[in-house]
Design brief:
Number of helices: 12
Radius of gyration: 25 Å
Strand order of the largest sheet: 4-3-2-1-5-6-7-8
Distance between the termini: 52 Å
Strand content: 5-15%
Structural class: alpha+beta
Order of helices and strands: HHHEEEEHHHHHHEEEEHHH
Helix content: 40-55%
Oligomer: single chain
Largest sheet: 8 strands, antiparallel
Shape: elongated
Number of strands: 8
Length: about 350
């Protein structure tokens, strides 16, 4: 049985290794996304308070400059710039006062390219599905690797870097690194799979959670964003304003996302729906009243993105991504050396003598 698992582990790991290298490296790079933005745009280096009046004025200016505005992810003390979600494949970046810093389509910027490569493998929904399957397969690889290792645990040495390129050293390095990083690799692969297969994760973690009610019936009009954001802040005084989304169609509400103390999600899961006709509150959703299963479901993204736990967890995220890439690279190297070694050792049959 162990031999069969070892063979499955080796072949599956070799097939998935390139995907794991890409996902691990890009995941580590995404931790520094805001740092890269601040390095490239001096306007983003000075943080600011998320005040309704300041954010409202910025939203009004952005709406005037970009009629196709869908959502603005507000900046704040950590990053002094707003991230814009415009038309289907258009994105942007704006200063604290709403002045546009850049606008692009698809993965045209470095951080956008890394994001698209990590989340969609540059292949849209198909690439996202492939990445989700790879994450599930990586979980199985870790578990089978632990089973294969268990009988020989007494012989384990904790050297991570191989002393040479010999296959035995590579296998030892792959095994030791996998053992050391098994727990965080499982966490990041499980959460990555949970983001892709959201419906299945919801059925597993929050099977009895009520379905969200349909949006309320509202009027149409030009939203006064300063008033709307102030109204949302008044409903949740201790929360931080994080996002604003324009109505998806006439008669649909706008929405504002807030992050309350204790919430893990970087943009919060507390929502205020806004009536465009009055710029007032139409309905609220308090993340503090969610069931434990729903909170666990909403914890998937921040755990995967490294946005909870401060710099320490960010460091764990970076190191785990690098470890995942190293596991794929070293494992593939060892696998190829084994296959090539067998090919070279295969005896050459002597040519048959010519027939008389």
């Amino acid at each position: 049985m162990i031999g069969v698992l070892r063979t499955i582990h080796a072949w599956a790991g070799a097939i998935l290794s390139l995907l794991l290298i890409v996902l691990g490296l890009t995941g580590s790079l995404l931790v520094f996304e805001n740092d890269w933005i601040a390095l490239k745009h001096p306007e983003a280096r000075a943080g600011f308070a998320a005040d309704p009046a300041v954010l409202g004025a910025a939203a009004e200016r952005l709406e005037a400059e970009h009629p196709d505005m869908r959502t603005v992810d507000f900046g704040g003390p950590q990053l002094g710039a707003h991230k814009l979600y415009l038309a289907e494949e258009d994105f942007g970046l704006a200063a604290a006062d709403g002045a546009t810093l850049d606008r692009w389509t698809g993965p045209a910027r470095v951080e956008a390219f890394v994001f698209d490569l990590h989340h969609h493998l540059l292949a849209g929904e198909t690439g996202e599905l492939v990445g989700g399957v790879a994450a599930v397969a990586a979980v199985l690889l870790v578990l089978t690797g632990l089973v294969v290792w268990a009988p020989a645990w007494r012989a384990t040495r904790w050297r991570v870097w191989p002393r040479s390129g010999r296959r035995g050293e590579l296998v030892s390095s792959h095994r030791n690194l996998g053992l050391i990083t098994a727990a965080p690799v499982l966490i990041f692969c499980l959460t990555g799979a949970g983001m892709v297969f959201h419906d299945q994760a919801r059925a597993l973690l929050a099977p009895n959670a009520p379905e969200p009610p349909p949006p309320p019936v509202v009027g149409s009009g030009d939203i006064d964003w300063s008033a709307a954001l102030a109204a949302a802040q008044a409903r949740f005084p201790d929360a931080t304003l994080r996002m604003a989304s324009w109505p998806s169609a006439p008669g649909k509400p706008a929405s504002i996302r807030l992050k309350q103390p204790g919430e893990w999600h970087p943009n919060g899961r507390t929502t205020v729906l806004i009536d465009p006709a009055t710029s007032g509150v139409a309905r609220t959703s308090d993340a503090q009243t969610l069931t434990p299963g729903e909170r666990a479901l909403h914890a998937i993204y921040p755990l995967h993105a490294g946005s909870v736990g401060g710099w320490l967890y960010e460091g764990v995220t970076v190191l785990t991504g690098l470890a995942l890439a190293a596991l794929g690279g070293v494992g593939l190297w060892a696998f190829l050396k084994q296959r090539l070694g067998r090919t070279r050792r295969r005896p050459v049959r002597p040519a048959a003598p010519p027939r008389p």
